[in-house]
Design a protein that fits this description.
CATH topology of the largest domain: Carbamate kinase
Number of strands: 20
Distance between the termini: 40 Å
CATH architecture of the largest domain: 3-Layer(aba) Sandwich
Bound molecules: adenosine-5'-diphosphate, aspartic acid, magnesium ion
CATH class of the largest domain: Alpha Beta
Radius of gyration: 23 Å
Structural class: alpha/beta
Largest sheet: 8 strands, mixed
Strand order of the largest sheet: 3-6-2-1-9-11-12-10
Helix content: 25-40%
Shape: globular
Length: about 400
């Protein structure tokens, strides 16, 4: 007998009919004798609706109150699924994050899980009960409700699987696995049977929202077997492979990720002297704003330089405010910003052993007249910042350049 943690996303529980269908799937696994823990998201659109309600009252509501609000969506679906399971004759019990208990730090709206008490769940499982847990939420050590960031139910699923030592964590969603790129943008995107954990980590961090990045980090850290599958179609989905000495030879590029959520800031004419990068970025960091791609130009003849970096679009206004202050202190010429940019990344562990991947990427984009504004690379990824208007064109062109529609073969 195995223990499975199954997480169902918003679309999968988006209506009563769909919740009934999820209950059928869970019941079928239970009927095979498996112990079942089910993690649910809110109904699709619900979390956005709640955020919108808050914003009708205040632009930047108190994060603690936001968590009290947005965590309600998941409380609805867990109760409904438990009812649907009971109707089918299965014992089931629903729990909020605070009841389980999923202890987090107190970083409201982006809390991190610190510990999970498994005792209550174990007791239920031993008694043959299906445990249904609200995703995306926890509680801090003072009993305040916290949430784990958008897409956080994935992380709840993996964290529960880790703490219960589950056979597998299965992420059920509205696509039948992880694709070479978002199948909603490239029709010919291909589903991968397996993807290495490292690649999945990069894809998630570079914008593929099929899995929340923290969920992938958790799976890697605690060696949780993780699979992405469709709620609506049968199939084996995609296994996130933790097997380090996987025999399969890797293609150069495995996938393409993209992200429309970035904005770019440039501070022009800053003195090109030691310590200046820190004087620009430290105040930005002090405001809890994460900086992504950074480029410093070479020095101009007058000993000044331009410094450009990207941040999340939601942080642009705040970052600009900070930078205007820094510009005054440093006697810089001006601050300019652009929120019509996007980041496109190619990812693949095979890049390690292949030269010329970058030039192939750049010449492909150049061939389509797409100007590259910034570049950043690591061992297994190359990211470029481009004009947002060309994002889909770039993703399609690169998908075809690296022959990602073709069956995965050694190259
Ligand atoms: P859920 O509500 O089930 O958590 P999400 O919307 O968070 O679902 O994630 C699934 C979506 O991720 C898919 O509908 C797809 O558009 C998107 N996606 C982005 N990149 C990829 C990729 N490489 N493979 C599969 N899906 C992807
Ligand atoms: N409901 C939350 C969100 O929409 C968490 C999740 O679905 O994973 O972000
Ligand atoms: Mg999701």
């Amino acid at each position: 007998m195995s223990l499975f943690v199954q997480k169902y996303g918003g679309t999968s529980v988006g209506s009563i009919e769909r919740i009934e269908a999820v209950a059928d799937k869970v019941a079928a696994s239970r009927a095979q004798g498996h112990d079942m823990v089910v993690v649910l998201s809110a109904m699709s659109g619900e979390t956005n609706r709640l955020i919108d309600l808050a914003q009708q009252i205040q632009d930047k509501p108190d994060p603690r109150e936001m968590d009290v609000l947005v965590s309600t969506g998941e409380q609805v679906t867990i109760a409904l699924l438990s009812m649907a399971l009971k109707k089918r004759g299965y014992d089931a019990c629903s729990y909020t994050g605070g009841q389980v208990k999923i202890l987090t730090d107190n970083a409201h709206t982006k809390a991190r899980i610190q510990r999970i008490d498994v005792e209550r769940m174990r007791r239920d499982l031993d008694a043959g009960c299906v445990v249904v847990v609200a995703g995306f939420q926890g509680v801090d050590d003072e009993g305040n409700i916290t949430t784990l960031g958008r897409g956080g139910s994935d992380t709840t699923g993996v964290a529960l699987a880790a703490s219960l030592d589950a056979t597998e964590c299965q992420i059920y969603t509205d696509v039948d696995g992880v694709y070479t790129t978002d199948p909603r943008v490239v029709d010919s995107a291909r589903r991968l049977d397996r993807i290495t954990f490292e690649e999945m980590l990069e894809m998630a961090s570079l914008g593929s929202k099929v899995l929340q990045i923290r969920a992938v980090e958790f799976a890697g850290k605690y060696k949780v077997p993780l699979r992405v599958l469709s709620t609506f179609e049968e199939g084996g989905g995609t296994l996130i492979s933790l097997d380090e000495d996987d025999e399969m030879e890797e293609p150069v590029v495995s996938g393409i990720a993209f992200n429309r959520d970035e904005a770019k800031l440039t501070i022009r004419g800053v003195p090109d002297t030691p310590g200046v990068a820190c004087r620009i970025l430290a105040p930005v960091g002090a405001e809890n704003i994460e900086v992504d791609v950074i480029v410093q130009n070479i020095s101009a003849v007058d000993g000044t330089t331009d410094f450009t970096f990207t941040v999340h679009r939601n942080d642009l206004a705040k970052a600009r405010e900070v930078l205007e202050r820094v510009a005054e202190e440093l006697g810089a010429k001006e601050v300019i910003s652009d929120d019509k940019i996007a980041k496109v990344s190619i990812v693949g562990v095979g890049m390690r052993s292949h030269a010329n991947v970058a030039s192939r990427m750049f010449s492909c984009l150049g061939g389509d007249n797409i100007n590259i504004q910034m570049i950043t690379t690591s061992e297994i990824k190359i990211s470029v910042i481009i004009d947002e208007r060309y994002l889909e064109l770039a993703v399609r062109a690169l998908h075809s350049e690296f022959e990602l529609s073709e069956p995965r073969a050694a190259s």
